UniProtKB/TrEMBL annotation:
Segments forming a coiled coil: none
SUPFAM superfamilies for the chain: NAD(P)-binding Rossmann-fold domains
InterPro entries given in the database record: NAD(P)-bd_dom_sf, SDR, SDR_fam
Source organism of the structure: Arcobacter arenosus
Family (UniProt): Belongs to the short-chain dehydrogenases/reductases (SDR) family.
One Pfam family it belongs to: adh_short
CDD domains: SDR_c
Protein name as it appears in the record: SDR family NAD(P)-dependent oxidoreductase
Amino acid sequence: MKKAIVTGFSSGIGKAICEILEENNYKVLTLKSRLEDTKALEIEVKNLLKENDIDLLVNCAGLGIFKPHEEISIPKIQELININLTAPIILSSLLLRTLKKTKGHIINIASIEATRHSKFSALYTATKSGLRNFSLTLFEELRKSDVKVTTINPDLTKTNFFDEFNFEPSENKNAHLLPQTIANTVLDILNFDGVITEITVRPQRLEIKKK
């Protein structure tokens, strides 16, 4: 049985990815450390690797904020950078030796915002575009080691990501994605005979609803 680590596993896209992996012969190992606590994260991962080889890392945990940049507090700026960008980079570093051993796969869940420049999204876009470019560059570094690296850029997906925002995806089923859609994309990527380095997944329509 292959083993995977998935961040953001408790809800939304991360939970759906865990469910589909478990249905397809993966054992998902969960991390208890807060992603912002890099020292605790390092200790936990190193202890986990004493008894496990990892075949798959899915960096799915993410936070968003969409407001004028001068209105964002410095602690919030640091929190988004830590969770959206720093933690995936650190986890990739900690797991690369085992992933080289298993000829494994890193899948980073970025965002449609990593590919464009939207109003009030400067901070979020910076973290997600950083993750996207980290992934694409890391693939080039790891090609000879047979470790695959993939970036997924989801558009509006109906999850609790929008709970604290003043907008959310419309109820029109053609205007949002479901977490299961992204999870199915992960499975397709894992089963692909080759490497999908990047994929952007979008609904047909663009509609949002103000709260």
